[in-house]
Structures are given as structure tokens and as C-alpha cells.
Design brief:
By secondary structure, this protein is of the alpha/beta class. The chain contains nine helices and 16 strands. The chain has two domains: about 1-190, no CATH class; about 195-340, Rossmann fold (3-Layer(aba) Sandwich).
């Protein structure tokens, strides 16, 4: 995660640039809020879209680090402005190149930011930019919790401060507030979805790895310790070894932005988990298996008192139809559907 890399670099005493897309219009490779880190030697962590945009931002970031300066870079990705076929998206974007030095204040703010993201706590990261373009004079960082606690520096007048704090309390997506000679980027912290995987077999192993790679916080639950362990799932946030699947959700708090992926070793276990999953607020519920098995489980649940509206929440057979057969291929189809749902483009 970017937040973890930021803290590690600050703890090492390194200065780096945190590049963030702060606005975009039209078609762009990444959207507002996308981040990457650029170190003094040009090494990058994360991505803001690749191609000319990322190459230009990286080159400029290395220059800025030498002087401890920050800047805002506009990018025009229209066909007319691109001489090569490297990236022709047709949109425009602004990238904030924030030169972050290893001060005690920065370490405090970004460490708390990391912990808020890890703990899925609501709040906002505020980046206060004084100036514009290559004349950025100062950048300050501040966190606002849901309780109204401020961590960091918020160098604004009382009027502007009140406006920013109101926006922080109301924002569910990245937004920019403009003031005379300054602007504030407001980024809600609770952005990472958790994928709760039930079953720790071969498909789950590949699904967990791919899901973690594309930004999901991954939890794996199974009743077999020889399968549900760190050696098989090195990139997962948590691994739960259950006594059985009867109370699979007893230690979990599933939110509306979360995903439930049912991949157990048998249809009876799948039915047991699905019955519990339907009682959660999960935004996505998917279950592996054939249509015949799925229909049998649906029929049994309807007889047990579930409604058709409950059944309609389930994606089964799980995954996009890409002709997948091997566990790794099935995992790709599953995560592809999860990404599609996360992006809000389900038809």
C-alpha cells in the first residue's frame, strides 16, 4: 500500500514526491485520488496511469526532490497534444507533485493516515497547497477524524478552516476546494474494500493474491488450518481458522463496500456461508459453482424463508464469463468481476 511505503520512507529519513491526480476531465488512465511515490533515484511505488503522464511526472519529481520543492503539473492527453501512440486518452489531468520531507509532523500525520486506512476508520486526509503551478510556496498535511480531531497543520483562516472541515465531514470522494492563492485536496480515508474469502483451496489462493494486488484488503476463512495459513496466503490482511462454517461471520464486521466470495470445498458449506452472507450488508456476494448447484442452493434457501430479493443479490456462478478452467484463470475471472463491481459499472 502507498500509505505503508510513505511511512517506511519517512522512517528512513528519505525525502520523496507523493504524486496525486487531483483533478481529471474526459478519458484519463487513472482518476482523481490515484497516487504514486517517486524517490530521489526515480524509483516508483504505485501508479498514476503509466505512459507519458507517469513518465513526465516522474521526471519532474526527481528534479523537485533536489530542491525540496513541490509543483502542480497539468497534462493534456488529447490526440492533438500527443506526438506518439504511447498514450492517447483524450482527457486532461492535474497532478500534484508533493515533495514530502521526513519531518516529525509528516511522520505523525502519515502514520496516523496509514493506521486509519488499515483500521478502515472514517476521516479525511487534507493537503493544503499555498500557491499554484511551479510557484507552490508551501504544502501542509492534516487529518480530520469523524470526531473532529485534527492531526497536523491546517494553516487557513477561521472561515476557510470551517469550510474545509464541513467538506471533510460530507465528502465521500476526492474533491478540491479552491481559495484565493490556495486550494485544499480533501481525500476520504475509508476507500479500501475488504474481500472476505470463505474457503482456502486453490481457487481461493489465487483469488486472494490477485485481489490483494489490485487493492482489496483480503480476509480468508476456512476450517482447515493446513490450508488457511500465512504460508499459502502471504498477502492477506487476516486469516481465520474456523471451528466450522456455522458461525463464519461471528468475528467479522461486513460493511456495504465489502465483498463476500464463497469458495468452499462443498455445496453444503457454500449454502451455510451464503445463508449468513445474505444477512449482512455486503455490497457484493459471489458464490462458485455450476448453475445446477446454485439453483439447488437457491431453492433450499427459499424454502427456509429467504426471499427472491435476497437471492438476486448473489453473483453465481461467480466471475466474468471468459472460458476460465484452471484455478488461476477462475481467479482472474472472479477478481475481474469484483473490479467491475467496485468501479460501479455493473450493467
Amino acid at each position: 500500500m502507498i500509505s505503508q511505503s510513505v511511512c517506511e520512507l519517512l522512517e528512513k529519513g528519505e525525502t520523496f514526491v507523493l504524486a496525486t491526480i487531483i483533478s481529471h476531465t474526459g478519458s484519463t488512465p487513472r482518476t482523481s485520488g490515484s497516487k504514486m511515490i517517486v524517490t530521489a533515484d526515480g524509483q516508483g511505488f504505485g501508479t498514476i496511469g503509466g505512459g507519458l503522464l507517469e513518465a513526465g511526472a516522474t521526471s519532474r519529481a526527481v528534479e523537485l526532490i533536489q530542491f525540496g520543492q513541490s509543483a502542480i503539473m497539468p497534462f493534456d492527453l488529447s490526440v492533438e497534444s500527443v506526438d506518439t501512440m504511447d498514450m492517447i486518452c483524450g482527457g486532461q489531468a492535474e497532478v500534484l507533485l508533493d515533495c514530502v520531507s521526513p519531518t516529525e509532523m509528516n511522520l505523525t500525520v502519515f502514520d496516523r493516515w496509514r493506521r486509519m486506512l488499515d483500521g478502515r476508520q472514517k476521516g479525511c486526509l487534507l493537503t493544503i497547497v499555498i500557491g499554484s503551478g511551479d510557484t507552490v510556496r508551501r504544502i501542509a498535511h492534516c487529518l480530520v477524524t469523524t470526531a473532529g480531531e485534527l492531526i497536523g497543520d491546517l494553516p487557513l483562516s477561521d472561515f476557510k478552516r470551517e469550510k474545509v472541515l464541513t467538506a471533510a465531514a460530507e465528502s465521500s470522494a476526492v474533491r478540491t476546494l479552491l481559495f484565493d492563492g490556495a486550494f485544499v485536496v480533501v481525500e476520504p480515508t475509508q476507500r479500501q474494500c475488504t474481500a472476505y474469502l470463505f474457503g482456502a483451496g486453490h481457487v481461493a489462493q489465487s483469488t486472494a493474491a490477485i485481489a490483494a494486488t489490485v487493492g482489496f484488503r483480503v480476509s480468508v476463512s476456512d476450517d482447515r488450518e493446513e490450508y488457511a495459513n500465512q504460508a499459502r496466503f502471504p498477502d492477506t490482511h487476516e486469516i481465520l481458522v474456523l471451528e466450522n462454517f456455522e458461525h463464519a461471520f461471528s468475528d467479522l464486521f461486513v460493511r456495504e463496500e465489502d465483498f463476500i466470495v464463497i469458495l468452499t470445498r462443498g455445496h453444503l458449506y457454500d449454502k451455510t456461508v451464503l445463508a449468513q452472507a445474505l444477512k449482512t450488508n455486503a455490497g457484493y456476494i459471489g458464490m462458485i459453482g455450476s448453475r445446477k448447484k446454485r439453483n439447488a442452493i437457491y431453492g433450499a434457501l427459499l424454502k427456509e424463508g429467504f426471499f427472491q430479493a435476497d437471492i438476486d443479490r448473489v453473483h453465481s456462478p461467480i466471475g466474468l464469463s471468459i472460458g476460465a478452467e484452471a484455478p488461476e484463470e477462475i481467479a482472474v475471472s472472479i477478481v475481474a468481476e469484483m473490479i467491475q463491481h467496485r468501479a460501479g459499472i455493473m450493467s
